[in-house]
Design a protein that fits this description.
heterodimer; A: 139 residues; alpha+beta; Heat Shock Protein 90; 5-stranded antiparallel sheet; B: 116 residues; alpha/beta; Udp-n-acetylmuramoylalanyl-d-glutamate--2,6- Diaminopimelate Ligase, Chain: A, domain 1; 5 helices; 5 strands; 37% helix; 16% strand
Amino acid sequence: MSELTFRFVVPGDDYSRAGEASSTVKNRLKRLGIDPAAIRRVSIALYEGEINMVIHGGGGEVIVSVTPQRVDMVLEDHGKGIPDIALAMQEGYSTASDQARSLGFGAGMGLPNMKKYTDEIEVSSVVGQGTTVRMAVLL
Amino acid sequence: MKIKDIIQLLDAEVVWGEEKLWEKEVQNACGSDLMSDVLAYVKDQSVLLTGLVNPQVIRTAEMMDFVCIIFVRGKHPDDAMIQLASEYGIVLLSTEHRMFTACGKLFGAGLEGGAR
């Protein structure tokens, strides 16, 4: 297997569709015969990322690349950005709306969960321009 | 226990899931209305009890490989949620019991909480 790349557009205004990209990636990884534990880690990290993109980022693009050694995920939005990334990485810190909370999210667990379930994570953000999250799960 | 045992124990209505799926064996469950916590702390559980009703409950269950969702306090998923659950093969139940009672009945009958 050489590198496979999947691209998705995450709509920014439709909570009901958040998770479609993660669900599709999960199914494709299953078909590739990747270890189920690794698939779950990818799925959860990507799903949290998607939710964040809908809640905070106004939507964006997700690119997932798969090689026999690793699954790389890049989530890029053009939302309001994160002023203090270290603070955002802390469990329990949240700026989510009541709408996000009503869906069972916004508890300040998104980025910490993404870190917990991946082997590599890098968050870069410019306030007013957007946020890019790069994550990898090693296979 | 099997999903069919849960149906009986909680006097639950089967919202979606054909009878052959009721034969699935389940060992662990978790109860939460906070999907972030389900994603953060749950490990290898197969049943989710919740009072939250929106499509993200089904998505969360799919990511975590749950095989059955029990909506407590008589909550009912809408058609879009039922459609989504059917795509993933997740059985949907609804019980009039409140969260504490529903969890207690299942725990008392041998369903475990699982390790963190």
